[in-house]
Design goal:
Elements: H1 8-27, H2 33-38, H3 42-50, H4 54-61, H5 64-67, E1 81-86, H6 92-106, E2 110-115, H7 118-126, H8 128-131, H9 139-142, H10 145-148, E3 152-154, E4 159-162, E5 167-173, E6 186-190, H11 198-208, E7 218-223, H12 230-237, E8 241-246, H13 257-267, H14 271-276, H15 292-297, E9 306-314, E10 327-334, E11 339-344, H16 351-364, E12 369-373, H17 380-393, E13 401-404, H18 410-422, E14 426-428, H19 433-441, H20 452-464, H21 482-490, H22 499-503
Parallel strand pairs: 1-7, 1-8, 2-5, 2-6, 6-7, 9-12, 11-14, 12-13
Antiparallel strand pairs: 3-4, 4-5, 9-10, 10-11
Length: about 525
């Protein structure tokens, strides 16, 4: 799905559809039949159960309408897409898996299920033996035992074969987004906010949903809206989409009693609670230095020819639980003077691991130099990189290593980079969920998630744009044109229509055009 050009009409249509979905979710909020049975007086409950035969009671265990809350039901109206936009633990995966089971019983024969990674596809979509989740909500968890035993798992081929239904469930991940050669009647995409190749994968998926039959094709999307994604807005606006919203609290009866209370104590009222718990698709955080609307508006699918590429590293001193991740970012500067964020290899890594990860990015993007923070780790960055180079390429191997010094606070260092982003001169090449979350959630006033990727981006931009600590631009002295550029970007204007406004912006000191 190509991101839409945001305009007042589009935003109005989105808000109308989004608010309608919220109203529908509120009207359908309530307990399942199983929950209503549980709260009956004991004698009434026992009388009802006693009226059922053993076979009926066994059937009831796997009869989803008995366990399904009204808010999980898919309305019986024409559609092609079903979006479960819900908080964590709300039951969206169970609802999607049960939908697939019901459709298989109705006669669907070809299904594809796609997770963010192959490992997550096996763990969260397949479940059961492969996920080691005995009581989970994956496909292997929801079939009754006599049917589950017949399912043939072909992990290497990426298939679940259901011979008694003459059906096959194909398995894939966002890591392989081409999807060429297949033809499907039903698809499930889980946690699309973590996908890196979503646009390309969605376009390819649309072409595969072409099997003709009595049952119309359907694409199920399940996700917690960790950030405001243009893809989700486009999907909600699509007239062929049914959006089902829900919160963690809706499923409280099936969760640890202390879970909701702890979430309330720790995250109550915060943006992360509204997203992760409430399942809300939020707009920009006004306190943050970076805004998702601008990131979306300036996103590109491919980088242009680049003059220079660096791999920037913000090292963590320890990999112990609770410590920071190591930020590892590849970025380049184009002949237009714009900065392009190419790749992210950050994570909780030992020095040996992040040294190897940085070297892989260096080779993959034919980088010109490494850039690393010296303060916290002393010689850690240069020592680790040189050791990795010697181990992988021999004692004669060399590479340029630029050391930077953090003499000012994180928010001060990030400010000029955020201005570059507001001017439309910082571009994400593709989708980088973890980077974008850090950028849009970190607030100098409120704090936020540990911004290791943000710091790595700062080091990369400072090196690529030659913005050393002593060369920091006095951007407050010349704001002419910046409010107009920012407003246009937030309204959804694309970089190509900003040339007139951008030309009016002041040049940065030193003559370098960013």
């Amino acid at each position: 799905m190509i991101p839409s050009h945001s305009d007042p009409a589009f935003e109005s249509a989105f808000l109308a559809r989004y608010e309608a979905a919220k109203r529908w979710a509120t009207s359908r909020r309530g307990p399942s039949s199983a929950q209503r049975l549980v709260v009956l007086p004991r004698e009434d409950r026992e009388r009802i159960l006693a009226s059922c035969s053993t076979a009926e009671l066994a059937l009831l265990l796997y009869h989803w309408p008995f366990w399904e809350r009204p808010g999980q039901c898919i309305p019986d109206e024409p559609h092609r897409n079903v979006l479960f936009l819900q908080g964590r633990g709300s039951g969206k995966n169970r609802a999607a898996a049960e939908r697939i089971r019901a459709k298989l019983y109705q006669g669907v024969r070809s299904v594809i299920c796609i997770g963010p990674t192959w490992r997550e596809t096996l763990r969260h979509i397949v479940g059961g033996r492969l996920g080691a989740r005995g009581n989970g909500s994956g496909l292997l968890d929801i079939f009754p035992p006599h049917e589950r035993e017949q399912i043939i798992v072909r992990e290497q081929k990426g298939e679940l074969c259901l011979p008694w239904l003459d059906a096959t469930v194909h398995l894939s991940s966002d890591e392989t987004p081409e999807l060429r050669g297949g033809a499907y009647q039903l698809a499930w995409l889980d946690e699309v906010c973590k996908f890196r190749n979503l646009d390309r994968l969605w376009d390819n998926l649309e072409f595969t949903m072409r099997v003709r039959g009595e049952i119309p094709p359907e694409i199920i999307v399940t996700t917690t809206p960790r950030k405001s994604m243009r893809f989700l807005k486009d999907l909600i606006v699509d007239p062929d989409t049914i959006t089902i919203m829900g919160a963690t609290d809706d499923n409280a009866a099936n969760l640890d009693p202390e879970y909701i209370a702890r979430l309330e104590r720790k995250y109550g009222g915060s943006r992360i609670a509204r997203q992760e718990r409430g399942g809300e698709l939020l707009s920009d955080n006004e306190d943050a230095l970076f805004h998702q609307s601008i990131i979306d508006a300036t996103r590109v699918r491919e980088a242009p020819p680049l003059k220079r590429v660096v791999v920037a590293i913000d090292p963590a001193i320890s990999v112990a639980r609770g410590n920071d991740e190591t930020g590892i970012i590849a970025a380049g500067v184009g002949h237009d003077g714009h900065i392009y964020i190419l790749a992210d290899a950050s994570g909780k890594l030992t020095p040996e691991e992040w040294g190897l990860a940085a070297l892989r990015l260096y080779d993959q993007h034919k980088a010109d130099a490494f850039v690393g923070e010296r303060n916290r780790g002393g010689d850690l960055v240069s020592f680790t990189l040189r050791a990795t180079l010697r181990e992988r390429r021999g004692h004669a191997a060399t590479a340029k290593i630029v050391e930077v010094h953090a003499t000012r606070g994180k928010d001060i260092r990030a400010e000029p980079v955020s201005v570059i982003a507001d001017q439309g001169r910082l571009h994400m090449v593709g989708v980088h969920p973890e980077i974008e979350t850090e950028l849009t959630e970190y607030s100098p006033r409120l704090g936020g998630v540990s911004p290791n990727r943000l710091d790595a981006i700062v080091w990369a931009v400072f090196e690529l744009a030659r913005l050393g600590e002593d060369e920091k631009p006095d951007y407050r002295a010349g704001m002419r044109g910046l409010p107009e550029v920012s407003a246009a970007l937030r309204a959804g204007a694309r970089p190509g229509v900003l040339s007139g406004l951008a030309a009016a912006l002041p040049r940065w000191p030193g003559g370098g055009r960013l």
